[in-house]
Design brief:
Number of strands: 11
Order of helices and strands: EEEEEEEEEEE
Distance between the termini: 40 Å
Strand content: over 45%
């Protein structure tokens, strides 16, 4: 079993940066693919970024490519999402998720992830 706790959200101006962290408990973390998803008010939760268990493969949704970077530190059981050049449309609750079934493949599909954190709010003001 994996428990996930996100942190690092907050209020930032357009063009600013934030670094989200997701701390995981449980031995399954190092063999799990990890993902970040976000949910804006009134919208469904959507994929943002994912990383394989080894960190060797990463995927990003097109709207964040070149601005966001996902990484992981398996020694610290933590994944990160560095967000630069933030825009108002990045405003959402950001969720960390773990896919313990296929660590080698960083899925972009929400249904593939079997553990979720509680989310952290990111607000970008214009």
């Amino acid at each position: 079993q994996v428990q996930l706790v996100e942190s690092g959200g907050g209020l930032v101006q357009t063009g600013g940066s934030l670094r989200l962290s997701c701390a995981a408990s449980g031995r399954a973390f190092s063999s799990a693919a990890m993902g970040w998803f976000r949910q804006a008010p009134g919208k469904e939760r959507v994929f943002v970024a994912s990383i394989s268990a080894s960190g060797g493969s990463r995927y990003y949704t097109d709207s964040v490519k070149g601005r966001f970077t996902m990484s992981r530190d398996n020694a610290k059981n933590t994944v990160y999402l560095q967000m630069n050049s933030l825009k108002p449309e990045d405003t959402a609750v950001y969720y960390c998720a773990a896919d313990t079934g296929r660590g080698w493949y960083p899925s972009t599909v929400k249904a593939d992830y079997n553990y979720w954190g509680q989310g952290t709010q990111v607000t970008v003001s214009s």
